[in-house]
Design goal:
With about 140 residues, the protein is an alpha/beta fold. It has a single domain (about 5-135), classed as 2-Layer Sandwich (Transcription Regulator spoIIAA). It has helices spanning about 40-55, 75-85, 100-110, 125-130, and strands at about 5-10, 15, 20-25, 30-40, 60-75, 90-95, 120. It has a seven-stranded mixed β-sheet with strand order 1-2-3-4-5-6-7, with helices on both faces. Helix 2 (about 75-85) links the parallel strand 5 and strand 6. It is globular and about 40 Å long. About 30% of the residues are buried.
Length: about 140
Amino acid sequence: MNQKITTREISKDEMWINHNCIRLIEGNIFHITASGEQTSEMAYTYLDLFDKMLSGSAQPVSYLIDLNQAGKNSSGARKLWTQIGDDSQTHRIALFGLHPVALVLASFVIGVSNEQKMRFFKTEQEAMAWLKEVPADRQN
């Protein structure tokens, strides 16, 4: 079943895909509030909006993803999320939420990721603190 996808541009730093909000916040972090089922088509739309919002920036990007209202992810969407995690431009991905679907999604995505740049947190505050943490290899 194909879901109709609508996008809305609120500002250069805030876009919506159906009921999913993407905001570009401090430190080149995409704050994503996922809501409902995530299809392959939606995942490709996310990628297009990420490119548009970054406007060709070569700086690494992190993702702060709220899964509290997330639904199932199609296999195609899961593959795209894994590709984002493995991309050299991705600094870190912090997933958070207590919804049971969120826990399943996070365990799957983290389980298939080859990198240690993805973690799941119970709260947004814990997730944000980890994203802002300076890795040991970047200190002095």
